[in-house]
Amino acid sequence: MKKKYRDEGDHQTWLKKMFESLFALVAFGLVIAVFLLLLQTVGDMAKSRGHSPWPWWILFFVWSPFGSIIILWLFFDVLEEDE
């Protein structure tokens, strides 16, 4: 008697694993995108306030991304560009 290569149960298991993997990759991509958007926000806020973004990015990694944003927002004014 010949064995089947796949039966219905194996196909459903394979499909379930594929969707779990796809979901994990999409979730990981979204986390990376949010992280990069926060990093860009801190850099843009620092530049618009006349600061180098590097110290603020270090504070972003060492302390807190939201802490960096709040400190820049509360204690430093946006510089107006001369037209």
Structural summary, described in words:
This protein has 83 residues and is mainly α. The protein has one domain (8-75). Helices cover 75% and strands 0% of the residues. The chain is built from three helices and no strands. Helix 1 (8-48) crosses helix 2 and helix 2 (53-62) packs across helix 3. The longest helix has 41 residues, at 8-48. 7% of the residues are buried.
Helix and strand pattern: HHH
In DSSP terms (H or I, runs of 4 or more residues), the helix count works out at: 3
Helical percentage: over 70%
How would you classify the helix and strand content by structural class? mainly alpha
Specify Rg, calculated over alpha carbons. Answer: 24 Å
> Mean pLDDT across all residues, rounded?
88
User: How far apart lie the N and C ends?
Assistant: 86 Å
Can you summarize the main beta sheet?
Answer: none
Q: Segments where pLDDT lies below 50 for 5+ residues?
A: none
How does the overall form come out from the CA principal axes?
A: rod-shaped
Q: How many structural domains does the protein architecture include?
A: 1
Q: Total strand count, please?
A: 0
Beta-strand content bin: under 5%
